[in-house]
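Tip: read the tokens left to right.
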């Protein structure tokens, strides 16, 4: 059995859409939990499909691909957390309202727009509101800056690449693609197998990723904001709240209430499913991914989740530059952006929680799979049991939170109480998780430190 078959059977599919593009016997379906999943046909998946799956191809991992792509560039360096890099920055766009329209500093949309404006590409493959009313968002092709602007901001929503890959195959031109780490890796793997795609996709713009959500995430936010489940139309996941810190953002949910179309704004702190540490409605594949910084992208942008930047509610990006062309683009249009050089370690600190969960946490999850005698993807991190007991408990409880979140949402769908039923179902699991994340000896240690500081202060 090929590894891609094990990926599908074991629930490790991220739904990227690479395999159905190279192997038409495979189809992409939205499963009952609101996740895109690859489904095999009557025959065994092809060798090409196996080679293009970001969770099946163990030979071409992010380190190997990164070295091929960037290893020979003069001045390139490597950091185990962030991958290869030429420069690292924190900053934002000062021109044309990109920062206002973006989730944080507006850098990704600005970069894509610049590639269009200066004629480096003819089109951009990115996520924007869907034409298909059955979903909120999908990958689409934008050929102008105005079209591109429709895709600003992060979308915590399932998407897949097969249709835009087919478009690229059928339409000559030069393309840039924007994507989360595993999708950029999937694109690179497709390019290893398909000369046409390799020739036409010229630039890869990466997004820092916490994890990919099912449709239940968007639905739960809008539902809890007061829009009936069946009447939810759209969710803006990153609405900047005036006068608030960057970490204190809101959502805007649009739908029909009492026969009228309404848009409701809610701070995420008032919603029960928005804590990223809980991992509600997370794809299982994300628990077996060790790439946070889109290490195979030419440039990666994400939120600068550090105190010195988070206090600015307009938003700030961290930027990891890997290709000379991206470095030169930033230098050429330096008057449109504000950037300050930072170290790779500072970039890693900005994503500290995500990196810990995807490196230390993944190593423990691999260990658990091995102990159970179950197949799992081969990752760069190795299986390990050598972490503190309380961290093991945290990772186990997070796995249970994810599993129970899907069960709880299905219960809520059938209950007249709606999201209240979800929260009641999750309450005991959340209590167990919080207890694991904050054991008594950690609480005692913190209080002791506070007491020492007070005594020394006197």
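Filled-in amino acids:
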């Amino acid at each position: 059995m090929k590894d891609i078959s094990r990926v599908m059977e074991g629930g490790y599919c991220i739904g990227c859409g690479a395999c159905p593009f190279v192997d038409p016997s495979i189809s992409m379906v939205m499963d009952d939990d609101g996740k895109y999943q690859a489904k095999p046909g009557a025959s065994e998946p092809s060798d090409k499909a196996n080679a293009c799956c970001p969770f099946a191809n163990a030979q071409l991992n992010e380190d190997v691909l990164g070295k091929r792509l960037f290893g020979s560039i003069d001045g390139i360096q490597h950091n185990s957390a962030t991958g290869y890099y030429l420069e690292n920055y924190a900053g934002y766009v000062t021109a044309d309202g990109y920062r206002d329209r973006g989730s944080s500093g507006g850098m990704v949309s600005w970069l894509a727009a610049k590639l269009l404006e200066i004629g480096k590409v003819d089109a951009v493959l990115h996520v924007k509101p869907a034409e298909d009313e059955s979903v909120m968002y999908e990958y689409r092709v934008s050929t102008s800056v105005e079209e591109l602007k429709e895709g600003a901001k992060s979308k915590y929503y399932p998407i897949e690449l097969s249709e835009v890959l087919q478009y690229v195959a059928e339409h000559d031109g030069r393309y840039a693609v924007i994507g989360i780490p595993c999708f950029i890796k999937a694109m690179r793997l497709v390019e290893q197998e398909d000369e046409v795609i390799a020739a036409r996709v010229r630039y890869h713009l990466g997004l820092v990723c916490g994890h990919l959500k099912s449709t239940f995430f968007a639905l739960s936010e809008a539902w809890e904001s007061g829009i009936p489940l069946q009447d939810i139309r759209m969710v803006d996941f990153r609405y900047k709240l005036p006068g608030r810190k960057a970490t204190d953002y809101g959502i805007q949910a649009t739908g029909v209430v009492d026969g009228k179309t309404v848009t409701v704004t809610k701070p995420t702190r008032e919603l029960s499913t928005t804590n990223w540490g809980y991992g509600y409605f997370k794809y299982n594949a994300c628990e077996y991914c060790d790439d946070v910084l889109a290490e195979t992208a030419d440039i990666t942008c994400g939120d600068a989740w550090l105190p010195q930047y988070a206090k600015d509610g307009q938003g700030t990006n961290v930027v990891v530059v890997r290709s000379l062309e991206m470095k030169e683009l930033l230098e050429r249009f330096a008057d449109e952006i504000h950037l300050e050089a930072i170290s790779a370690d500072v970039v890693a600190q900005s994503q500290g929680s995500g990196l810990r969960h995807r490196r230390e946490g993944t190593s423990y999850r691999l260990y658990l799979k091995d102990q159970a005698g179950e197949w799992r993807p081969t990752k760069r991190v190795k299986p390990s049991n050598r972490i503190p007991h309380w961290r093991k408990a945290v990772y186990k409880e997070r796995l249970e939170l994810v599993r129970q979140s899907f069960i709880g949402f299905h219960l809520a769908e059938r209950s007249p109480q709606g999201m209240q039923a979800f929260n009641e179902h999750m309450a005991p699991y959340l209590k167990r998780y919080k207890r694991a994340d904050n054991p008594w000896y950690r609480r005692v240690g913190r209080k002791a430190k506070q007491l020492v500081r007070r005594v020394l202060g006197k």
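The first helix runs from residue 3 to 10. The first strand starts at residue 27 and ends at 30.
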